[in-house]
Structures are given as C-alpha cells and as structure tokens.
Amino acid sequence: MNKSFRKLVLVSAVVTSTLGMSVSTQAALPFFSDSKKEVPTLAPMLEEAMPAVVSIAVEGTQTSRQQVPEMFRYFFGGPSEQAQERPFRGLGSGVIIDADKGYIVTNAHVVANADEITVKLTDGREFTAKKLGADEQSDVALLKIEPEDLTALPLADSDKARVGDFVVAIGNPFGLSQTVTSGIVSALGRSGLNIGGYEDFIQTDAAINRGNSGGALVNLHGELVGINTAIFGPNGGNVGIGFAIPANMMKSLVDQIAEFGEVRRGLLGILGSNVDQGLAEAMNSEVNKGAFVSEVQPDSAADKGGIKAGDIIIAVNDKELRSFAELRAKIASMGAGAEVELTVVRKGEKLTLDVILDDATQNEVVAEQIHPALQGATLINGEDADGNAGVLVSEIAEGSPALRIGLREEDVVLAVGRQRVTNVMEFRDAIENTKGVIAMNVRRGNASLYVVIRQ
C-alpha cells in the first residue's frame, strides 16, 4: 500500500470530492468524573477548550503553469509557458490563542493563496479574518478577527511533553463540524519527514484527518500542546500517525509575525549532523545524541559565541537536544538577536556558551557560503518577471564555478528540487537539506530551465 505524508486541509475546486475515512484503534484515556452523574468523561475539560477551536473556510485563485511545446512556439510565437488561473475553496481549522486581540493560529497551507478567509466559531458566529502573516517553512500562519467575547486556549510548555502523555485532537475533519479524538504522545522531536523546511514535530496517534489542519492538540488540562499539521498514511487517511507543531515553537513564530508581519529567523552559522553511536565512537565521546558541529562559519553567531568544530551541542536553553534537525528547528524559530544558552560537550568536558543569533533573513549573501559550486555568485531576495518571489542572482563573476554550472546574472531561482523557495534563507535551507544531485528551477526572462549541481 502506498504511504505518503499529507497536509490536512480539504480543498475542492468546482467538483466536491467524497473522501473515505479509515478507522483506527485509539488509546484509552483516564477520564474525569462528572460529579452530577458519576460518569467518567472528558466533557468538563472539552467544554472549556472547544470554543477556542474554530473552522476556517477560504476562497482564492490558484495559478498553474504549463510548458508550451516548442513547435507551437515556433509557429505562433509567444512565451515558453502559459499561466492558468482557477478558483478554489478550502476548509481547515484554527485555534484562538489571544481572545483580547482576536489572534487565531492555523497552518500556512490552510490559508495559502486565499483571497477571502471566513472563521466560524462553535456558537455559530462568523467573522471575516485578516491574515497578519505566514511562514511556509514552518507551516504557521496568524489571523486576526474582531475580539468579541472570544475564548482562547492557554498554552502548555510543549518542551515538558513526554511520550505517553494523553492528548486530545480537536478540529474539523472532512469539513464536518467540530470533532474530538483521543490518543497519546507517540514520539517527540520527529524530523526528516520532508513535510516542511523546519521539522520538530510531536507525533500522536489521536485520529487526525484532512480538515484537521490548524486544529488543536491539547493535554488533559485543556492546554494547547501543538497545532495539528500533517498525517502519514495511505490515500491521506488516518492510520494513527499524526504530527503537530509544538506550542513553544508556534508561539515564538507568531510573536514575530505579530510584531514584524514576518518571521525573522535566528541564524547560528554552523554545519553539522546528528550524533549516533558510530560518530560518538569516532570522536571518542560518551555522548550518543545531540547535534555534531562539523563546521563553524567565520564571523557567524556561533563563531563569536565560542562554538568550535567537533563540539556536540546537547541542550538549548537547558532543554535536552535529540538531533541536529531539532537544533535547526529551534534556532530557526527564535528571532534574530535572541540570546541562546547552548550546552556543548568538547573533548569530554561540558561547557555552557551564550550566543546571540544572527539574522537569517539577511538580504544579500555570497553564494559560496551556501555551496562551493555557487562560488562567484551574489544572491539577494527578488522576483521573476511575473512577480513570483525567489532568489535573484544579482552578480556573477566571469569564469566562476557558478557561471560554469549554468547560472547567469538576473536569473531567479524559484525552487530546489520540488521545494519552493521564496528568499535566500529558504534557498540556503533547501540546498543544505538536499542530498546528491541538486536541481534548481530557474526563471530567465520568460523562459524556465533547470541548473544542476552534481555533488
């Protein structure tokens, strides 16, 4: 059976699809007792939490591009590809996190390309929402509605979540009204799933399906532990493997969106890998998990903070670190200029280092810092001829490696492999996460082509 990762928004364009549901066995929960009826139930907690989870309906227009065959271009002229716009509608979920300000958090893919966003509360009221900002790489978006007698979910400290904790998922699967499912925290710090650019997911077996995107994963205190974002299963159905963005990571990102209208990521300035038994033995280290530092970029935040190649980072702000991917996600969710305490092991000795993060959204980058094959190119955030955001090659040196692989001045990189990139930061991350051959989708004037780096 073919298995794949699915983001959970239910989208329909003209024709409404009928989706089948799969059934899975859920973990039994310890129940609260209702004092009036002496019946074991989670109802008292859910009665407090459910009004904070909303349904989100979106309408918008999607643009698809199709290559025009060369023979037609020869006879009739015109561009090498055609753009076609079509309307779409979508459904998802969201969580009110600030009742006084009317702030609602959801997934970025729920509201992507939306022209109209309608939020419906459990009491039947509907509001037109404004999107304050979104971050595609972490799949988080912040909406605002009029703060009229709203209920917000308190946030849990997701760093304290443990495997085995009971949790409840609340959302609007398949466009149905609010639905509650139960389960446990199945795993923490899940990454390497190629769901998003920054992955540090909470895994749960609480039943999650399409339309649950942006919904709440709550603990038995009715606190928000995470934002449901993706599932792993055949044909998009639930098989008890769902993923949520941790509440702490979400809070850091939406705070930046609320203040700046965008995420201004922190940048540490290291390259590295996960620590495993083989690496630990090679480094003669007793530490067998964490983030191994293979290279420290000159004049970076890490360099200034005293981190050295060969260090193993085992904690961030005194919270244990399991992998390099988890370090990357945590650093990226922190704002530029944030002061971070890193615990490292160096030659068997444990050290604590204070680092002030650089700004990963810097506008201009010497491309050699990203990949040796890009030496000679200067990259900035830019747009192609149709206004699509990407990475612009502002300068390129004669005879340089970047020129030899096929890049030209004024090229705009729109994707690396199948991953869309809209700025230098996303381009850097996509290159770092690609193993083997790197294929960059480039717009050159009205033409679309690929530039390939063979590692």
Short description:
This protein has 455 residues and is mainly β. It has three domains: 1-10 and 40-262, Thrombin, subunit H; 266-359, Pdz3 Domain, CATH 2.30.42.10; 364-453, PDZ domain (Pdz3 Domain).
Topology:
Elements (H helix, E strand, L loop, with lengths): L2 E5 L2 E3 L19 E3 L4 E3 L1 H7 L3 E15 L2 H7 L4 E18 L4 E4 L1 H4 L2 E7 L5 E3 L1 E6 L4 E5 L21 E6 L7 E12 L10 E4 L11 E4 L4 E11 L7 E5 H14 L5 E2 L2 E5 L2 H6 L8 E6 L4 H5 L6 E5 L2 E2 L3 H10 L5 E8 L2 E8 L1 E2 L4 E3 L10 E7 L5 E8 L4 H4 L7 E5 L2 E2 L3 H10 L4 E7 L2 E7 L2
Antiparallel strand pairs: 1-16, 2-6, 3-4, 5-6, 5-8, 6-7, 7-11, 8-9, 10-11, 12-13, 12-15, 13-14, 14-17, 15-16, 16-17, 18-25, 19-20, 20-21, 21-22, 21-23, 23-24, 26-27, 27-28, 28-29, 29-30, 29-31, 31-32
Account of the 3D structure:
This protein is mainly β and 455 residues long. The chain folds into three domains: 1-10 and 40-262, Beta Barrel (Thrombin, subunit H); 266-359, PDZ domain (Pdz3 Domain), CATH 2.30.42.10; 364-453, Pdz3 Domain. Helix content is 15%, strand content 42%. The chain is built from nine helices and 32 strands. The strands form six sheets. Strands 2, 5, 6, 7, 8, 9, 10 and 11 form an eight-stranded antiparallel β-sheet that branches. Strands 26, 27, 28, 29, 30, 31 and 32 form a seven-stranded antiparallel β-sheet that branches. Strands 12-13-14-17-16-15 form a six-stranded antiparallel β-barrel. The longest helix is centred in the middle third of the chain and has 14 residues, at 247-260. The chain is globular. Residues 10-28 have low confidence and may be disordered.
